[in-house]
Every structure is written in C-alpha cells, then in structure tokens.
Amino acid sequence: MAAAESESIRKASERLNIVQPALSRQIAALEGELGVLLFARTKQRVRLTPAGEAYLADARWILREVQLAGERAARIASGKAGIIRLGFHETAGRSSIVADTFRDFRRAWPEIELRLLQMTSQMQIEAIARGELDAGFVYLPAKLPAGLSSRAVSVHRIWLALGEGHPLTGRRQISVVDLRDEDFVGISRSVNPVYYEAVTTACRKAGLEPRMVQETQSEATTMNLVGVGLGLALAISADEVSWTRGVVIRPVQGLSLSMSLALVWKTEGSGLTDRLVETLDTLLRSGA
C-alpha cells in the first residue's frame, strides 16, 4: 500500500522504516506468489497495473474488515454486542413488563440481538441448565436447579376459563363445588409439569379433582377447545388481556392459585445476560 500511495519504492521504504532492497524483494515475492505484476516500474517511479489496482482495493477492504472484526470482538467481550438466546412462555409474552423489557433492551443495546424462542417453562429451565438458552421468562417451579438465578417479574393468577354460552357464566359467583361435575381441558403434565403440578396441588387443597377429558400441548389450543364448548380450563392470566374470542374468565371462590413469572439465567452467565437483567431491574424499580 505504501508503495502504491507514494509511487516510489524509496519513499515507501522510508515511510515503513525498512531498507529499500528488502521492500523490493517483498513486492517481487508477492508478485511471484500471485503470478501477476502489481507494479509497472520506471526509473522515476512505480505505478499500479490494473491487476495491482484491483489487488489494492481488495487488500484495503480486508484490512478494514479485520479492524471491524477486532472492534466487534471487543464489544462482544465487554457485553455490548452479540446474541442472547431468550426463551419465553406463551402467556408470558402477553405480560406488559416482558414486552417492555424487549422494547427497552433493543433501544439500549441495538447491537445485541434477542433471539426469541417460545417454550414451556420446564423446557426453558432445562435448556438454560444445558447452556442451550442464555435466559428465559418462566413460571417458577418450587425449586430451581443449582447454578441458575432468577429475578421475580410478576405474579399471575389462575382463572377459570369458560365458553361464552356455558351456564356458569351467568353466575355472580362460582365456587369449587360448582366445578365438580364439569369437564376440563388443559395442558398435559409432560408438556408443562410446573403448571400442571401447581394447578393439581391447588385443586386438591380446595377439594376439587378436575375431570380431564382432553389434554393439549399449549394454552392457545386449550382456549380454543374451551371456546367451542369442549370443557372448562384453569389458565394463567398474564395482565388479563387478549383472551380467545368466545371465552370468558372468572375467579373461583375457594380456589387460591397464582404463579410467579420470573427471568431465569445461568448464575455464571455472560456480560450480555447481565445487560438483560439490568434492563429488567430498571423497569422493576420504576414500577412498570
């Protein structure tokens, strides 16, 4: 580059602080390796050949990319750029504070990509423990595995979901006794053991054994089945918004049940995960 810019081997060698013959040998060796002449030489100066001009343009691009790669590596190492693999439960996605966390994080850290993956709480916890996810918004089990940390986000009630035409929708109050002869639909234990165990335990304490007629793979499917009258369901209400058309929700007297939504991550996580936790903490302190 120095020889091309100065059009002189002597001036280039002085600029690079090496002897002229050594620089001439380096240029000749490069031309020999490439099998093309990079410079047209005269007694007064050297000038790039067309091949040399193309080579110089590519060399400058490569050097710029190397510089950018170094800068990006430094930003990643300092937690200012990179990718966070972030899981979220399907109902957590309806929570306003989760949505606000996504929004504020993208604004504050535009070079950090949030790669979002919808998964059940149990699947997220297992994936984080294995290092396949960096963090996740989950409904907390009774106990987290060792090596994982959590930050409580909010507490969500479990509501009774009924089809609009169900007779119980006309009741001012619904009790556990009213549900003993009803059919229920819900997520299977294998899909979401955290939710299943919480609901089952609460129902048994209240003296209710729901008669399950259909198990599902997601809350969305559960709500659709409720909407067509296949059964009732006990479902998580994230900020009590966006329920399926044809479905109404009601509290149940005598059934006290809620689940804690939290951000979970590996305790010895990366600087990237720390940025996400900081964003959430800022929102929590502001009372969002």
TrEMBL record:
Domain of life: Bacteria
A GO CC term attached to the entry: protein-DNA complex
One MF term in the entry's GO annotations: DNA-binding transcription factor activity
Residue ranges constituting the HTH lysR-type domain according to the UniProt record: 1-49
Family: Belongs to the LysR transcriptional regulatory family.
Keywords: DNA-binding, Transcription, Transcription regulation
Record-linked Pfam families: HTH_1, LysR_substrate
Protein name according to UniProt: LysR family transcriptional regulator
Organism: Oryzicola mucosus
